[in-house]
Amino acid sequence: xxxxxxxxxxxxxxxxxxxxxxxxxxxxxxxxxxxxxxxxxxxxxxxxxxxxxxxxxxxxxxxxxxxxxxxxxxxxxxxxxxxxxxxxxxxxxxxxxxxxxxxxxxxxxxxxxxxxxxxxxxxxxxxxxxxxxxxxxxxxxxxxxxxxxxxxxxxxxxxxxxxxxxxxxxxxxxxxxxxxxxxxxxxxxxxxxxxxxxxxxxxxxxxxxxxxxxxxxxxxxxxxxxxxxxxxxxxxxxxxxxxxxxxxxxxxxxxxxxxxxxxxxxxxxxxxxxxxxxxxxxxxxxxxxxxxxxxxxxxxxxxx
Length: 304
Ligand SMILES: NC(=O)c1ccc[n+]([C@@H]2O[C@H](COP(=O)([O-])OP(=O)(O)OC[C@H]3O[C@@H](n4cnc5c(N)ncnc54)[C@H](O)[C@@H]3O)[C@@H](O)[C@H]2O)c1
Fold this sequence. Notes:
Blueprint: E1 8-11, H1 17-28, E2 32-37, H2 40-52, E3 56-61, H3 67-81, E4 86-88, H4 104-132, E5 136-141, H5 144-149, H6 154-174, E6 179-187, H7 191-197, H8 216-222, E7 234-238, E8 241-245, H9 263-269, H10 271-277, H11 286-297
Parallel strand pairs: 1-2, 1-4, 2-3, 4-5, 5-6, 6-7
Antiparallel strand pairs: 7-8
Helix pairs in contact: 1-2, 1-8, 3-4, 4-6
Bound molecules: nicotinamide-adenine-dinucleotide.
């Protein structure tokens, strides 16, 4: 018995990397899987690998940021397997560059694949569940780059922070149809991280913390009815760790006794917010700490 016996799941960008591992795990848990990728060969290879293992998968080729392609992904799942139970928005690209040098094309490409891609596929799935009823499950893919802010990734981080917000809002809107929507912020050794973090060391023997397949079990859980009570949440998923992120939260407040502020008064008092919260006033690289921990953890022997 798997968590997803008899269920039907579609994934975007599942031809390689984290999505490939997710597709294989979802199928291993009993789901019939539709493996989308813009790269036809990659999608076909993963679908064939799943079929060879005795599980059920078909390939779908298309750009998930195009509304017609996203709709055809949902349509193909329903036409082939008769239903839709979960959607995993995974497809992604990076075009890293500091903002002053970033071209409009680099900005638009990243926003399109991530934000428009999440909109297009989730929209098609929600329309299906609105018409046919739930339950349904949506898994979105955010990133610590958006939750924490990573140097050189203003396009990617803006999209990924947007995806976290998107997930919490879709969760509220779709609750009445018994549809959950959660986001993960994964981290793993794939071609994307080679650009963002520099090379992450290969593992030798022992638990390979940064193996992309480590992300898949949490995604299988969030795609299943076992997670029906969890929605609108953002989970960090790395190696053998799963974290729960708190949404943007106010940590300090000042007021002006019922009068509009003068800018001068604010100039004199905003430091109180900084002092009360312990937050650094200037720009901070919260990803630096994570990057350090990534390097530490890439050694295969550092964890039991
Ligand atoms: N690797 C990490 O550490 C990390 C960290 C945070 C978030 N993520 C996110 O995880 C997801 C998977 O990334 P990955 O690291 O496995 O990268 P990857 O490059 O290995 O895989 C991404 C896949 O998406 C496909 N794709 C790209 N654009 C597409 C489109 N428009 N339509 C359909 N398919 C498309 C690619 O062909 C590729 O097969 C992405 O959303 C990424 O932003 C990854």
